[in-house]
Design goal:
Layout (H helix, E strand, L loop, with lengths): L1 E7 L7 E7 L6 E10 L2 H7 L9 E2 L4 E8 L11 E4 L8 H4 L9 H6 L10 E2 L5 E2 L11 E5 L3 E4 L14 H13 L6 E5 L3 H12 L4 E6 L2 H9 L4 E4 L5 H8 L5 E6 L4 H9 L1 E9 L11 H5 L5 E2 L9 H13 L9 E5 L3 H10 L4 E5 L11
Parallel strand pairs: 11-12, 11-14, 12-13, 14-15, 15-16, 17-18
Antiparallel strand pairs: 1-2, 1-4, 2-7, 3-5, 3-9, 3-18, 5-6, 6-10, 7-8
Length: 375
C-alpha cells in the first residue's frame, strides 16, 4: 500500500509530505485509515533533533482512525472499528500486569526505537530507504500499521476528528492529577505552563475537587482560557513573581501540589519552591534539561517530594473512554482547546503550536470523514 505521510528527514527540518510504501502487515497488527491526528510538543521536540530518535521518521502519536484490515492473530478488533491510538506496551511484564503499562519494561524500545519488536520497519521510501515510526505506529500519515496494544476502541457516536489528543496530551495531563498526584478534595495545585497538558490537568483538578487551582504562564490568552476551565487564580510570570504571588494566594503556606509542563529548569525550581511542607511536584515535560537541588534544604527539611509520571500513569483502554464520558457530561471540555488544519498545512500547524497561538492543533487526514450526528 502506498500512503501519504509527513516525513522528517533530519533534525530541524520541516515536515515533507511524501509517498511511502507501507510494509506487509504482521499477524498481530491492523491497518488503520487515519481520520485525524493531534500534534504534541513531543513531536516538535523530536522534529528539532533534541532527542535520540533517528531520522528519517514519521511522527505523530495522537491519531484516530478506522480499521480497514486485521491480522490473523488480532482478537479484540475488527474491520470498521473506530479507534484512538496511544502508546505501545508489552502486556506481560510486571509493570503491565500490575496496571502500569506506561512504565512497561520495554516501553522505550516499543515506542522510541522506530521499528517493530522484531527490528523490521513499517514505512519505506519509494527508493527502498526505511523510515522510522514513532510510538509503535505514527499518525502523521493517511494509513498506518498498528499493534493491537496501541488501540482503544471508541463508540460509533464519537467524532474521530476531535478525540486523538486523548491518546497523549490530554491523557497525560489528566492522569498526572488522577493517578500521579491524587489530590485530596479541598487541596491546592499550581500548574506551570497552560498548554494542552497543563489545561487538561487543571480541568481534572476541578473534577477531583481541588479548591485552589493556580495557572502560571506567559501568555495572557492561555491564562484567560485557564480561568474558563477551572483555574481559580492566574499568574503571568513575565509580569509577576510566581513565588510571591502564590505565597499571597495561599497565606504563605504554599500549594499542596505542582505540575510543570514546560521542562524549563528555572521554572521547575520555582514550582518546587512554591510547594507547601509535604507538597509534591510532578515535572512531566519531555525535556533534555537538568536541575540541581540541595536535597536537605529543598526537599528533606520540608518533606517535599518530586515524582515522575509517564503518560499520566494511565491504561489508555480504560482512561480514554473515561475522558470521553467526562466530555459528554460537560466536565472535560477539551474541544475548546483545538483548532483543525488540513494535512497539507502541517508545517503551519507546527508553527502555530510552537508560537503559543494555538493550544492543540489537529490535522485532518480524511476530509471525507462524516462525523456522527447527535440524536
Amino acid at each position: 500500500m502506498i500512503v501519504k505521510a509527513a516525513v522528517v528527514n533530519a533534525g530541524g527540518e520541516e515536515y515533507q509530505l511524501s509517498n511511502l510504501k507501507l510494509a506487509e502487515m504482521q499477524p498481530d497488527e491492523v491497518i488503520v485509515k487515519i481520520v485525524a491526528s493531534g500534534m504534541c510538543m513531543s513531536d516538535e521536540t523530536i522534529r528539532n533533533g533534541k532527542t535520540s530518535v533517528s531520522f528519517p521518521v514519521v511522527l505523530g502519536h495522537e491519531g484516530t482512525g478506522i480499521i480497514v484490515e486485521v491480522g490473523d492473530a488480532v482478537k479484540k478488533f475488527k474491520v470498521g472499528d473506530q479507534v484512538v491510538m496511544s502508546y505501545a506496551y508489552c502486556g506481560h511484564c510486571p509493570s503491565c500486569q500490575t496496571g502500569h503499562p506506561s512504565v512497561c519494561n520495554d516501553w522505550m524500545k516499543l515506542n522510541f526505537s522506530g521499528v517493530r519488536e522484531d527490528g523490521s520497519h513499517t514505512f519505506y521510501k519509494e527508493d527502498g530507504t526505511p523510515v522510522k515510526n514513532f510510538y509503535g505506529h505514527s499518525s502523521f500519515t493517511t494509513h498506518t500499521l498498528v499493534h493491537e496494544s496501541n488501540l482503544t476502541k471508541v463508540d460509533a457516536d464519537v467524532d474521530l476528528r476531535l478525540v486523538g489528543p486523548l491518546g497523549c496530551g490530554f491523557l497525560t495531563g489528566s492522569g498526572t492529577v488522577m493517578n500521579g498526584l491524587k489530590p485530596e478534595v479541598g487541596s491546592s495545585l499550581a500548574v506551570f505552563g497552560t498548554g494542552a497538558v497543563g489545561l487538561a490537568a487543571m480541568m481534572t483538578a476541578k473534577l477531583e475537587g481541588c479548591s485552589t487551582i493556580i495557572a502560571v504562564d506567559i501568555h495572557d490568552s492561555r491564562l484567560e482560557m485557564a480561568k474558563s476551565l477551572g483555574a481559580t487564580h492566574t499568574i503571568n510570570s513575565n509580569l509577576e513573581d510566581p513565588i510571591k504571588k502564590i505565597a499571597e494566594i495561599t497565606g504563605n503556606e504554599g500549594v499542596n501540589y505542582a505540575i510543570d509542563t514546560t521542562g524549563i529548569a528555572p521554572v521547575i525550581k520555582t514550582a518546587l519552591a512554591v510547594l507547601a511542607r509535604g507538597g509534591v511536584i510532578a515535572p512531566i515535560a519531555v525535556s533534555t534539561n537538568s536541575i540541581e537541588l540541595n536535597i536537605t534544604s529543598e526537599l528533606m527539611l520540608s518533606s517535599k517530594s518530586m515524582i515522575g509520571v509517564v503518560m499520566g500513569d494511565n491504561v489508555p483502554q480504560l482512561s480514554i473512554p473515561q475522558l470521553i464520558n467526562f466530555y459528554k457530561e460537560g466536565r472535560f471540555p477539551f474541544d475548546q482547546l483545538v483548532k483543525f488544519y488540513q494535512f497539507d498545512d502541517i508545517n503551519q500547524a507546527a508553527k502555530d503550536s510552537t508560537s503559543g497561538s494555538v493550544i492543540k492543533p489537529i490535522l485532518i487526514m480524511d476530509e471525507s470523514y462524516k462525523a456522527p450526528t447527535a440524536n
